[in-house]
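Readers of this paper often ask what the protein records in our data store actually look like. Such a record has a labelled line for the sequence and another for the backbone structure tokens. The tokens are whole numbers drawn from a learned vocabulary of local backbone shapes. We quote a single record here, exactly as it is kept in our systems:
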Amino acid sequence: MTAKESYLIPNLVIGGRVALAFVAVGMLALDSPGLAWGAVVLTVVVIAMDGLDGYLARRLGLASELGAVVDITADRIVEHIFWIAFAVFGQVGLWVPLVVMTRSFVVDAGRGLALAHGKTAFGDSTMMRSAVSRFLTGSRFMRTTYAAAKTVAFVLLGAEVAVERSWAAGAFRPAEGAFALLAGLGQAAVWVAVVLCVVRGIPVVADSRAYLVGPPADTGGRRVG
């Protein structure tokens, strides 16, 4: 395998994850119970691919600041695709994607300020300035917990759509109590995911305030942006 081919592998995983997210919500949008259930399985695959690109980059010695930025951007796109889709399908309120997207823009703006000063979101030159920030934002435990919360929320919401499609097609009629339980668990998972999303973003905003005063060292005093 050439160096160029090795470099493309993590990027292909990132691009594939984003493409599959679009495919999954497209399948959910169609009036087909089979495609809807297939979309639920595909959603699990999309979430499971998160982190695979980073693992491959580390194994191949291709980890870089640019790769980290691209990975975070892909995470944002995938997350927003699902939240917006489920709001359109009526599984969540409009407030959910609005809160998540606003948090994303604010957090990424703060990380952009830090990056202009040579600080990255994670890694040796991280912008995180406290143990609380490192735990909430960068620890494996919190990142895994948040990923799991999103996975559960997306899968349960997708399952709701699939059940509704199956019901409308006359494939089967779920027990009223079972469907209510599914919907209740889905909404609980949504709240957990959104709360974790906001809580994990607060330290980034707090840490980024240190980069609001004064220009980066390598700009010669010129304004950036």
Notes: Helices lie at 3-29, 33-48, 52-59, 65-89, 95-116, 131-138, 140-168, 176-208.
